Amino acid sequence: MFPLIKHFSISVVLISSFLPTLTYSSEKLPPQGLILELSEIDQKGNPQMLMSEEYVYDKASKNFIALPDHHQQNKNFLEFQRQSALTKLMGTGTDAAKIGLDISKFAWDVIKDNRPETVASGAFSSILNKANTDFLDYPQAKSFQSGLYRFQVRELVPKLECIKRIKKVCVLSKPVLKPGPTSVDFRFRVAGYYGANAPSGSDVPNGKYLPQVFFKFEKSDTWLGYKVNASAEIRGAANEGTENNVNPAATVVCNFSVGSPIQNWTRAYYFKVTGQKGFVKQW
Questions:
Q1: What is the pTM of this model?
Q2: Nearest to 226 by CA among 260, 187, 257
Q3: 151: region left, alpha or beta (phi > 0 left; psi from -120 to 50 alpha)
């Protein structure tokens, strides 16, 4: 038996270097800059940076312009994101159509304006076979979850930086933009059940299936005025095994939008799951 899901799905953000601007959409004064960070928290609680990007507000274009010289990124992580962005709804894989992979949900809303949109028991998808789409019939499933991920948004605020000292005394300074307090802090995992066998006595091919795939929401802190909308979807479902030993694989897409009185942006973030391994880290 599978327990009801007690966590809400949430799509996390990636501000990718191949999306160079953020659009300002408010009559209020925008911040002078933004910094967006995505990191993976290790077992000791230390963040391992996957992506850090800075933007400054350009009055002429009314956009937030990326500062490439201030970007930090894990190259393997970025490459996986680029490749995954091209993934179609259904992949081909080995005999994907022949074995009849079934996706219980291709997409679902999760959060609107900071509030859950779906009931907890329905906030997941399954990757099974069309001959039997009841995930409770697939035995020997094991739970999986990814590492802990953290997405942060901080406004850049002007601070004085000393550029000349005489005998340890600052005699000349200039204003520079530095990270201010955290405006958005999301922490989450990709989780679910994998390795499930085909139902006994059924026409389902042997293999390892994915009875449930969902997002385990750990924490969300936002400043007053910020709103979050999130949805999730399954793309590129394919068989990476054989016709007689099925290994369903798919890209899980988190569509994530954050709005505030001074700016709005949307991003997609990609993960991979398989029937044999559950969460598959690609970086």
A1: 0.78
A2: 260
A3: beta
Contacts of 168 (CB under 8 A, 6+ apart): none
Sign of CA pseudo-dihedral 24, 29, 32, 38: negative
Measured between alpha carbons, how far is residue 62 from residues 24, 31, 33, 257, 263 in Å? 6, 11, 12, 19, 11
- In the chain, which ranges are continuous DSSP H helix? 75-84, 96-99
> What is residue 198's predicted lDDT score, i.e. its pLDDT?
96
Single-letter amino acid code for the residue at 189: R
Q: Taking the domains of the chain in order of start, what are their residue ranges?
A: 21-280
Could you read off the pLDDT of 249-269 as tens digits, one per residue? 999 888 878 876 666 777 788
Q: Distance between CA atoms of 76 and 233, rounded to whole angstroms?
A: 23
Q: What is the pLDDT of residues 1-36, one digit of tens each?
A: 555 444 333 333 333 333 334 443 444 455 677 888
Q: What is the DSSP string of 121-148?
A: GGS-EEEEETTB--GGGS-S-EEEE--E
Rounded distance between C-alpha atoms, residue 55 and residue 142, angstroms: 42
What the block records as the tokens of 232 is 């999730």
Angle at 115 between CA 212 and CA 222, to 5 degrees: 105
Q: How many CB atoms lie within 10 A of CB 81?
A: 23
